[in-house]
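Retry 2 of 3 after timeout on previous attempt. Resubmitting structure tokens to design endpoint.
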């Protein structure tokens, strides 16, 4: 919860064509985090920009499935794979 507002501000301030969020060292995401990710997705979509998630653990992936928001995101195993896909 302590970093949600900073995360949201950073996402809103980012003007790049594609944003890659690396979850490699993130073990868990709660409902506030999922809400922030959905907000990031909406912000990116409204600006016709992309969002990619990298290194999402099975636990986080399942949380996104259960909350029925998984379909909003593109998942990649590595930052380089996400970079290649978003550059195309």
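Retry 2 succeeded. Sequence:
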């Amino acid at each position: 919860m302590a970093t949600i507002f900073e995360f949201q501000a950073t996402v809103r301030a980012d003007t790049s064509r594609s944003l890659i969020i690396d979850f490699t060292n993130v073990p868990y995401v709660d409902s506030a985090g999922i809400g922030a990710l959905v907000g990031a997705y909406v912000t990116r979509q409204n600006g016709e920009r992309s969002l990619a998630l990298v290194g999402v653990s099975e636990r986080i992936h399942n949380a996104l499935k259960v909350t029925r928001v998984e379909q909003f995101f593109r998942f990649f195993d590595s930052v380089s794979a996400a970079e290649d896909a978003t550059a195309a």
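Attempt log closed. Helices lie at 4-13, 31-46, 58-66, 79-87.
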